Amino acid sequence: MERGSREYALWSIAILAVLILALIPVVWLISISLKPTDAVTDGRFLPSEISFDNYKSLFEGGIDDSPFIKPLINSILIALSTTVIAIVFASFAAYAIARLEFPGKRVILAGALAIAMFPPISTVGPLFDMWRALGLYDTYPGLIIPYLTFSLPLAIYVLVAFFREIPWELEQAAQVDGATPFQAFSKVIVPLAAPGVFTAAILVFIFAWNDFLFAISLTSSDASRTVPAALAFFTGESSFTQPTGSIAAAAVVVTVPIIVFVLLFQRRIVSGLTAGAVKG
Amino acid sequence: MSEITLEGVTKVFADGQEAVKEMDLEIGDGEFMILVGPSGCGKSTALRMIAGLEDITRGELKIDGEQMNDRAPKDRDIAMVFQNYALYPHMTVRENMGFALKLAGVDKTEINRKVEGAAQTLDLTQHLDRRPANLSGGQRQRVAMGRAIVRDPKAFLMDEPLSNLDAKLRVQMRTEVAKLQSRLETTTVYVTHDQVEAMTLGDRVAVMRAGVLQQVGPPAELYDDPRNLFVAGFIGSPAMNFMPGEIEGDRVTLPIGEAKLPEEARGRGGDGKVIAGLRPESFEDASMVDDELKRERGVIVEAEIDLVESLGSDLYAYFHVESEGVESEQLADLAEESIGETGAASLREGEEQIVARLDPASKIKRREPAQLWADTSKLHLFDPESGESLARRESAPEPGAG
Amino acid sequence: MEASVQPRPAGSQRTRSEHRLAWMLCAPAVIAMLAVTAYPIGYAIVLSLQQIDLRFPDQSGFVGLDNYKAILSSELWWTDIFNTVFVMVTSVTIELVLGMAVALVMHRAIFGRGVVRTSVLIPYGIITVVAAFAWQFAFAPDTGFVNHLPLIAEDMDWFGGRFSSFAVIIMAEVWKTTPFMALLLLAGLVTIDSQLYEAAKVDGASAWQRFTRITLPLMEPAILVALLFRTLDAFRVFDTIFIMTRGAQDTESVSILGFNQLISRLNLGLGSAVSVLIFICVFLIAFLFVRGFGARVEEGRPGS
After folding, report:
1. pTM here?
2. To probe the interface with B, which of A2, A3, A5, A7 has the most B CB atoms within 10 Å?
């Protein structure tokens, strides 16, 4: 049946409800971050006056003293490295799984699934010990490696789902049309695979950006501590003030890129997350 | 009594597209009405409006004299057979067929009785406890029909139910559907794009084009007396041949020769240009035609045959004549729809291709000159501007009347 | 739709080289995945059988199953199991219902799809710790605004009591992960042929009947998979509780227990035993779902 204006109104309410519920915590964080430091405890949802003090204190002290800048850099570099490496590894594996027949294909997929269900906490102990022995404790690789392990299953599933949709015969058609194998691959296959790869990359990035457990277990200083871990150890301006304001400001800084990502790529992300589920 | 009446029914979609325009149609109780036309002509939309799956923008829909515009599908007492069958995959055949009755609160024994009765009619009894996924296409189609039959509704609405079957099965099921309908005597509205189905199944056929009803009538009437170019070219396969003509007095000049105007067209509209149509079966190998007939009723065409299709029971000869061609919106629409039409190897500018159906005993051969006789008393003449047939009598029945 | 792969006679030169290529391509990913899971879990088992407290390195030694006995007989362990299961069951149930509603909105909305998608992905993309802070600040008596809302006591100390803390923790968890649940359910929703709903309408089904008799049964596989993944995720709850209460007020989860033993107390023996026990629990839950409820995991996916 077509929508009458009553149905239109109901849908609008439903959508609005979802939107509001999703955004309240974000708006709240932004609001705290914009409150002047003495107004943090005023119990209001929206600030009565706006001040950027919290943001300033985040970046005070430059790269060495600021509690935030180095962790931010760590987060960015670690997440990016993880994403790049994970995508490369996962693309290779997904290409093999989607295109080639070989024994062990099922095992690898099942294994990836099993790893996705694995409790990371169970690996923290041994990793702590191993990393200390190998000198990887409190280093970039020390975090990148476990991030790879736990994001690869997701990346592989998404990429396999996308790769299965590519008409590979196009590669042969291109060669018949006169392209070299490399040209066929780069001019025909790569553009077709790009959206899937991009989506998988976004999902891996979000995963690495998000991690907390490994970050606090396998780091002990600014050398490789990422933002989530750093947030847990924020101190306020003095030992008497709560770091609420600066935590909120840091939280906002670290959330804005995610929101931008999501806004720009929501269609892709949703299709990536649901594609895997539908095709398996 | 289950008559279905559409009065001025119009459907305008949210984006402004008018899918159905002011459609007037009366379907009698127990009648088998076919809605036929090319894709996008609005036939499915019209059917869905009758079902209640689409809102009616303007106009009135009445079933049994009661206005149904605002009634939900379930309150209209109609059953629908979908093109893709829409069988519930998680239910067995029995449960699929009994679903509507279960929803209506009919008691279990009664449901079983009806379901088993329908299953027997459709030869589905041994499949009753299987799931749709385990059935063949033909079996699924029958389950879809069974689901409709079991409800004993006021009307069956069928949306291209046979299009997903392979050609042979389709022909087989066509007769099954026809037999079933005549046995049950339920009013049926059947949508198809296949004019062969339309011609063989319907009591009456309604041809639609771009949302507008072109003509309604029994198949023979549409065939012998098409109201406009579109209907003339749509009904009949291979399609009617069209060529430009010029009327002078009581003669008409055609690319195939000059002929006497057929009776009905005399005295209409005076002199001028027309579009003439002649069906392939109005041609014959000249050597097989009685001399008298040749003189009286037709013209002899001399042409080189481009292509011969020998089907055993029929022989189709393709040839071309010099002609300035015909231009008409309706014919352009038809051309868009037709796929896989065989034709001469190349049609240059200034040529028109003609298909002739000949006696299979004819000795006509490809790439050889031949003499063909065209029975011009069977000419259909159309106004080149409007596409309307010139033979329509003033008392021509409007589409919609019984 | 499978990519076209020609079957070749087994054992032929081409097949073998194709196999080799495939393994080589998969190798980096497989190694990366195993390096941090297979080896460590084995190592964890080894560690768990020893007494290793890094603060007293001289007292290390093999103690067999002593660590396990100590844990399984400790009240803290069982309390934590209760906490974890409580949070898990409550949040997953709420998420399932809310997620279904959101999935339906995402599926059937004729306008505003982009808005809904974005709204749904923001909780997904936000760092869990950040979300935990946001909720904590909202409910904290000094910084929060919740206590100033109508119907709520102004001096309500949410983090002072056990179940009130749980309430906030669960709300934060639900907010954060309902989107993911909604997406998993949406994936199942889209596989349902829309003509089935039309047929049901014609057959006389009301909207509720269409939901219960068509949508839900056909979504069963997707629902089971969603439940499986979310339950496993929920069992591992850590970030939210850590930030909000650090486990105080008896809200500690088993993962926090493990963390405390391993990283705070540096007691690798006990901590590893906890880790292994958690692993076994997770395995049991997965087993229960796959065998017991018949969740068909090949059609599901990992994520989050």
Report:
1. 0.77
2. A2
